Amino acid sequence: MSGWLWAVGGVVAASAIWASLLFATGGFSSEPSPDSAGYAYTSDLCADTSMTPFEDAHYKTKASTGTASKDANPQHSGAQLKSLDTMTCNISFEQDGASTSAYSSTWLYNTATLHKEADPTPEFADGYRSYEKQDTSVGYKVEAVPGIGDEAYLVTRKDEGSTSSSSYVILGVRDGWMTYQSTWSSYASSSGSGSGSGKQPTATEVATMLKTSATETLRRLRPER
Predict the structure, then answer these.
(1) Which of 112, 170, 178 is CA-nearest to residue 140?
(2) C-alpha separations of 172 from 48, 196, 218, 224 in Å
(3) Of 53, 136, 182, 191, which has the most beta carbons under 10 Å away?
(4) Among the listed residues 36, 31, 33, the one whose alpha carbon sits nearest the alpha carbon of residue 174
């Protein structure tokens, strides 16, 4: 009997040591583990941004205005921090055939974030749904977008009654703990509606461009590509 008790005591002691090790190393931690979904950090998001949909719509990257870094186009930046990795890419476009006498501005702003300590899932949808709740003179429509990541949302600004040709469209994507946002912002003065000006894409056409570009860009951000 004493031998049996000794054996049981040994098992209990071993179990206690194993449990203490798990606690010490976080084995019993309730904190979720980051789900990178296969994405990796890149210091130049512009290099991985798919430009084909915009080029097919007769847009091209504007020439840089100078030699300083602030004059560069496209412009990219990135940072690897303890809680997240961030990547950005800003591109200024010009449209083939656009009138030189009319003012126009077209930008694409892309951001990708790899979250390391906090799961972005609980707040992701509400971050985009909140556009519909804004009590301002500008209205927005928000739609779920199937087929991209774990969830995606399209935000379109309503421009009824505008005297200019403009559009503002956002595509937000979450795949695991990776979040990606692509924002299109364009403006063309009403004087550019005559001969020689490029036809501005509709919000629906912009949304298609953003979705097509995002699908390819996210594929490129996976190391196994």
Answers:
(1) 170
(2) 17, 34, 12, 23
(3) 182
(4) 36
Question: What residues have CB less than 8 Å from 133, skipping those under 6 apart?
Answer: none
Q: Is 225 among the domain residues? A: no
CA–CA separation, 38 vs 183, rounded Å? 23
Q: Are the beta carbons of 92 and 62 closer than 8 angstroms?
A: yes
User: How far apart are the C-alpha atoms of 3 and 65, rounded to whole Å?
Assistant: 86
Question: Which amino acid would we find at residue 175?
Answer: D
User: How far is residue 79's CA from residue 88's CA, in Å, rounded to a whole number?
Assistant: 9
- Would residue 64 count as lying in a domain? yes
Helix or strand run (H / E) with residue 77: strand 75-80
Segment-wise mean pLDDT, segments of 10 residues, the chain, 225 residues: 48 49 49 88 97 96 79 94 97 81 84 97 97 87 97 89 75 98 88 52 95 98 79
